[in-house]
């Protein structure tokens, strides 16, 4: 699946950029018309349209042109803003809207059920029941889909997409460059001020607050066009990157995720977009090509020149290495326990995986660079190592960074032949991995088995998240009640 295209440029048609809803508009139009005792044909005659056309508009199935909206507003004695208001005019209209929108959603269509035709004669209590049942059905489907199994399958699917493209998305690069050009950013690290300029260019203001819902990194208020970020600074959520991710979600026209796979894909695209703003393709490629010519490529240099984290620099390297440097590579983020947190490859390295091809949660061979680095005393500089594996010999560079959940290694690896382009290629550190052969590092030696077999009983640390469903909700892990309450509190202060 390719990234969602941006919203189309404004035309005479009312566009999504104006934040309106066809179903809500239709109900507001019908409410105002009936309040004034006008039939469809009578109103149509006043605005030079047909009754059938206005019927489609009232049912949310036809998008009116701005010129027709202006005519309708005038004929009804109101303003265009009143017609385009996001609020339902009555409680019954709100129920009609909820039922109508639910029936148009993918989860309802997948059930193969007939559409419920809503008319003025449909009892309000019937609408209450239908809306309640649809809401509960959707909640259960979201909860059912967001299981660890579903999450792993979504990761497999997305990783295959990334591999097929060399983890390079030209459409996202172009959109990021257009924004940079719009604010006059031509070179060097993107400052916090320039990030705020981008938000302002898009018509948004940036607000640092103390009470951001704990389940969120940012909250975007589309109604008042505000980005809310946490005032508290944490090493895990640098505010500039968080703001750029929120900007990316808006620019890429991302809506409510259809399922966990869509949620995951949206996060990957917004992270990519933010990285393309922080480390613009043109400047980053120029820098990396120069380093390659000198045979002195180093992830830490990319980190330092653009003022980003090592992890961000490593991800960005995978975006650009194959497309612009002709280098195949792999990336790993591994917890100190040896468990893979994130990984990507297009160089045919063999990651440990389960029966569906998922690698998250799998344990890396003890002799890989991403594990060996934890035993190195010098964590200030990168650790480099060659590793002979059944898939070939790979050179890898790795660092260790702290996180609220422990220590993680971040590593970039390439096939042996491409090591010549990197600083650290002359390392004497070398290891041999026979994994997935269990005798490599997963089974005790005969001596240890003889000494301790049947005489040890460890108490395992339970990983509760492996037993439970993934966080439920449209945006997994986000408490929607907290978000809405937060936005209402901000609105009340204005």
Descriptive notes:
- It is elongated, with a radius of gyration of 27 Å.
- The model is unreliable at 1-19 and 464-470 (pLDDT under 50).
- The protein has 494 residues and is α+β, with helices and mostly antiparallel strands.
- Strands 5-4-8-7-6-9 form a six-stranded mixed beta sheet.
- The protein has 19 helices and nine strands.
Structural class: alpha+beta
The ordered H/E elements are HHHHHHHHHHHEEEHHHHHEEHEEEEHH
Taking strands numbered 1, 2, ... along the chain, how are they ordered across the largest sheet? 5-4-8-7-6-9
The percentage helix is 40-55%
* Global Rg: 27 Å
Distance between the termini: 41 Å
Number of strands: 9
Number of helices: 19
Query: Uncertain regions: pLDDT < 50 for 5+ in a row?
Result: 1-19, 464-470
Q: Could you describe the largest sheet, including whether it forms a barrel?
A: 6 strands, mixed
Outline: elongated
Mean pLDDT: 86
What is the strand content?
A: 5-15%
Keywords:
19 helices; alpha+beta; three-stranded mixed beta sheet; 494 residues
Give the helices and strands, then pairings.
Elements: H1 22-35, H2 40-47, H3 51-58, H4 66-75, H5 80-83, H6 91-104, H7 106-109, H8 124-145, H9 148-164, H10 170-182, H11 192-201, E1 205-209, E2 218-221, E3 226-230, H12 239-251, H13 260-278, H14 281-293, H15 299-306, H16 310-325, E4 330-335, E5 340-345, H17 369-372, E6 383-389, E7 392-403, E8 406-415, E9 430-432, H18 446-452, H19 480-493
Parallel strand pairs: 1-3, 6-9
Antiparallel strand pairs: 2-3, 4-5, 4-8, 6-7, 7-8
């Amino acid at each position: 699946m390719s990234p969602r295209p941006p919203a189309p440029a404004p035309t005479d048609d009312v566009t999504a950029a104006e934040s309106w809803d066809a179903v809500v508009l239709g109900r507001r139009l019908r409410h105002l018309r009936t309040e004034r005792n006008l039939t469809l044909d009578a109103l149509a005659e006043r605005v030079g349209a047909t009754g059938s056309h206005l019927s489609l508009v009232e049912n949310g199935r036809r998008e009116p042109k701005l010129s027709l909206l202006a005519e309708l507003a005038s004929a009804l004695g109101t303003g265009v803003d009143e017609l385009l208001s996001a609020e339902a005019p009555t409680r019954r209209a709100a129920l009609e809207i909820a039922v109508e929108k639910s029936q148009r959603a993918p989860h309802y269509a997948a059930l193969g059920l007939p559409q419920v035709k809503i008319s003025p004669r449909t009892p309000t209590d019937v609408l209450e029941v239908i809306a309640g049942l649809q809401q509960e059905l959707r909640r259960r489907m979201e909860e059912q889909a967001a299981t660890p199994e579903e999450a792993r399958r979504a990761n497999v699917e997305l990783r295959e997409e990334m591999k097929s493209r060399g983890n390079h998305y030209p459409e996202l690069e172009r959109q990021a460059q257009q924004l940079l050009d719009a604010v006059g950013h031509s070179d060097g690290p993107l400052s916090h001020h320039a990030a705020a300029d981008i938000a302002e260019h898009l018509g948004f203001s940036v607000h640092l607050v103390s009470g951001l819902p704990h389940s969120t990194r940012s909250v975007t208020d589309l109604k008042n066009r505000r980005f809310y970020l946490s005032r508290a600074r944490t090493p895990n959520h640098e505010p500039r990157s968080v703001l750029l991710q929120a900007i990316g979600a808006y620019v890429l026209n991302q809506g409510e995720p259809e399922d966990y796979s869509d949620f995951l894909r949206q996060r990957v695209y917004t992270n990519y977009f933010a990285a393309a703003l922080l480390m613009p393709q043109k400047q980053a490629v120029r820098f990396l090509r120069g380093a390659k010519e000198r045979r002195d490529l180093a992830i830490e240099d990319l980190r330092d020149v653009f003022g980003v984290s090592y992890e961000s620099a490593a991800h960005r390297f995978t975006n650009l290495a194959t497309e612009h440097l002709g280098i195949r590579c792999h990336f790993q983020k591994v917890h100190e326990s040896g468990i893979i947190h994130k990984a990507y490859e297009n160089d045919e390295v063999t990651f440990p995986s389960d029966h569906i091809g998922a690698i998250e949660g799998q344990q890396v061979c003890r002799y890989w660079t991403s594990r060996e680095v934890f035993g190195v005393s010098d964590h200030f500089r990168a650790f480099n190592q060659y590793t002979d594996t059944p898939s070939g010999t790979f050179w890898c560079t790795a660092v260790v960074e702290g996180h609220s959940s422990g220590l993680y290694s971040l590593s970039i690896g390439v096939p042996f032949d491409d090591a010549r382009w990197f600083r650290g290629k002359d390392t004497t550190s070398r290891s041999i991995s026979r994994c997935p052969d269990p005798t490599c590092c997963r089974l005790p030696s005969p001596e240890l088995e003889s000494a301790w077999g049947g005489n040890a009983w460890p108490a395992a640390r339970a990983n509760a998240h492996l037993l439970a469903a993934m966080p439920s909700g449209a945006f997994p892990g986000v408490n929607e009640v907290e978000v809405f309450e937060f936005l209402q509190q901000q609105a009340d202060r204005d």
